[in-house]
Amino acid sequence: MNAGEIKRLGMKVWGGQNGLLSLAELDLLMRIIREYKGEDPRVLEVGHYYGLSTCGIVHALRDRGDDWSMLTLDAHCADSWVGETDPEDFHRNRRDFFDDPRLDVVIARSETLTEALPYHVVFYDGDHAHEQLRFTRLVIDSPMTRLFVFDDRDFGTPKQCCKELVAEGWVDESPTLQRLGGDKRNVDTMTLGVFRREKYATSEGCTS
User: Using 50, 70 and 90 to split pLDDT, how confident is the model at 16?
Assistant: First the structure.
């Protein structure tokens, strides 16, 4: 499946919620996953909602043709931006469109992640308040994380996270910001933050 096919599922099958990634964002996220330079990537997603981004990541990982693993986490609780959702809706979408034994699903808040993150690529689309600051520090302190992508970088807390990442030596590769009319329903809206760390630890403990 490509980004266009998955976005159409989001708009038709999954209710067309405004919180879903735009087509441009989903396409970029999938390309980032496909073009990740390391082998056997471990991917963490925080905030899967109804599963549009999860679907995109899983299909991009399958396109790579190597071994991979992924953990996606969401509490399905209401916050300032979205209402409470039923985890079964996500599981139903997974079974129908992106079921894979290499995908692990955890229903929990991101605050439950407190240890160093053993993931090469992290996509964050969870709470964009204080928790994102804490989580960003967790990413920075991770010995393995090389790529960090998050949504809504023009919000207040994500802006602070961008500054902190740059201060810690991460390279800002974010595309031009565009929050257009219709927001996420506009195919060209682009609010992803994309940060790369050039030096990171491999799974063997070496530095690359």
Answer: low
In this structure, how many other beta carbons lie within 10 angstroms of the beta carbon of residue 2? 13
Distance CA 37, CA 45 (A): 19
Q: Total domain count for the chain?
A: 1
Parent domain of 37: 3-196
CB 140 within 8 A of CB 168: yes
Decide if pLDDT at 82 tops 70.
no
The backbone region for 65, taken as left when phi is positive above 0, alpha when psi lies in -120 to 50, beta otherwise, is left
Q: What are phi and psi of 106, to 5 degrees?
A: -125, 130
51-55, 62-66, 124-128, 203-207: the lowest-pLDDT one: 203-207
Structure tokens at 18: 């405004």
Structural domain includes residue 202: no
**Number of other residues whose CB lies within 10 A of the CB of residue 33:** 25
CATH code where residue 69 lies: 3.40.50.150
Which CA distances in Å does 181 have to 18, 82, 97, 208?
A: 12, 19, 29, 42
- Name the more confident of 40 and 77: 40
Confidence of residue 79 (pLDDT cuts 50, 70, 90): low
